[in-house]
Amino acid sequence: MNQYCGNCYAITVAGRAEHQATEEEKQMNGHPAAINGDPAALEAERAVEELRRGRVIQLFDGDQSLLIAAMETLEPPLFERLRSLRRSEMALLITSQRSEAMQLAQAAPGPVAISFPSKTRLEQLRAVAGVHSHGLSEKLQLRPLPAENPELADAGFRLAKLGKLLPALLAVRTAAAPGTDILNLSVSAMAQAFRDDLSLISRARVPLVHAVDTDIVLFRQRHGFGEHLAILIGDPNLKAAVPVRLHSACLTGDVLGSLRCDCGDQLKRAVSRMVSLGGGVLLYLDQEGRGIGLANKLRAYDLQDAGLDTLDADKHLGFLPDERTYDVAALMLRELGIQRIRLLTNNPYKIRALTQLGIQVAGRMPLVAPVNTHNQRYLQAKLDRAGHLAE
Q1: Which one of 34, 62, 114, 169 is at 20 to 30 Å from 94 when CA atoms are compared?
Q2: Which residues, in sequence order, are CB contacts of 65 under 8 Å at separation 6+?
Q3: DSSP states of 174-230 as a string?
Q4: What gap in Å lies between CA 317 and CA 94, rounded to an integer?
Q5: Residue from 222, 185, 197, 153 nearest 40 by CA
Q6: β-strand 227-234 against 57-61: which pairing, if any?
Q7: Annotated active-site positions, please?
């Protein structure tokens, strides 16, 4: 378990106009101004929170910059303030998946910038962005074009996704930022932020109904926002191929017993299978809704009720069919001393991903759950379109 310590520095200013940094301070991340760690990572993490709170940030790439705000959290006063800026150009940035779903720019390979009439209301734009899942109820004169700087747009989309927000942004190109309270972040800094780096935070024995001999270990990302669980069942032989299940968090299925998916059934069956095998490890990963978050998963459910399948619903909201990655899972396995596994899964992508990350997958064990009238179409889409295996 990690232990933390801190140092406090007292600065005496009497008789001096400026403080001369001590050698100890200079050695802390190279300069006392970096007392909170890597400035690039710090700015990127703060930028996610600014977007979540409905504030504007400034992204820049070389000599190009944009003021951006998340459409999901943008409020009318800020929208009107941005619209009133002089010598500014305003556009709605959406992903190629969203633009194709809205039939706005089907051939666009990357981010799309949509210009709109000056009198367009915020709620109209929010409908185009997907905040209202069924889209526009009225016609707008929209002019979609490839984003002028796709790197800036993609950086903004990534920040929004990290905050579990829709990847849709109001972007304003202006000569100067309208205040000193706006956070500035460079695209190059984004490459240094949100590295997959974990801390083991806590561990405890937690007897389960069907697995009394169970420990739960919590990992927290140092440069991100996720908290992930390793559920250690029984006494697996770490020298052999350990039974492992990668299970993405599903509040609706795992906790509430939703019939729309097979997640709850798979979770219970994985635990029972590991008990029968003498032990195993279930990684409970903080990536609800294939990585889009609970709010967007519920939006996707609403779209599925309107006729879309699970993959198209996610794309309609501007996401990839699957936003998950498994770097964190590989780090957790290594931290637990596990290098060779047998994976409980129907998803061959998980096998390929872990193999590429250096984990030896010695075999696969199917994990088939019951089909019902509520999840039949969902399960069929995973078989037909996502490449999942039936057994």
Answers
A1: 62
A2: 58, 59, 152, 173
A3: ESS-S-SSSEEEEHHHHHHSS---EEEEEEEE--BTTBSSEEEEEEEETTSS-EEEE
A4: 10
A5: 185
A6: unpaired
A7: 322, 324
Given a contact cutoff of 8 angstroms between Cβ atoms, the answer to whether 269 and 369 are in contact is yes
Contact 309, 385 (CB under 8 A): yes
Q: What confidence tens digit (pLDDT) does each residue in 102-135 have?
A: 888 655 689 999 999 888 999 999 999 999 755 5
Half-sphere exposure (CA, 13 Å, Cβ side) for 68? 32
Measured in whole angstroms, the distance separating CA 60 from the mean position of its chain's CA atoms is 22
Residue bearing tokens 């002028």: 148
Instruction: Report how far Cα 360 is from the mean position of its chain's Cα atoms.
Output: 26
* pTM score: 0.86
Q: Are 57 and 185 in contact (CB under 8 A)?
A: yes
Count the Cβ atoms, other than its own, within 10 Å of residue 309.
Answer: 18
Stretch (H or E) spanning 125: helix 122-129
Write the pLDDT tens digit of every residue in 26-62. Answer: 444 444 556 877 777 788 889 999 999 999 999 988 8
Q: Which of 168, 16, 191 is closest to 99 using CA atoms? A: 168
Dihedral sign for Cα atoms in the order 291, 293, 297, 300:
negative
Length of the chain: 391
State both tokens at 245.
């299940």
Question: Which uninterrupted H or E stretch holds 227?
Answer: strand 227-234
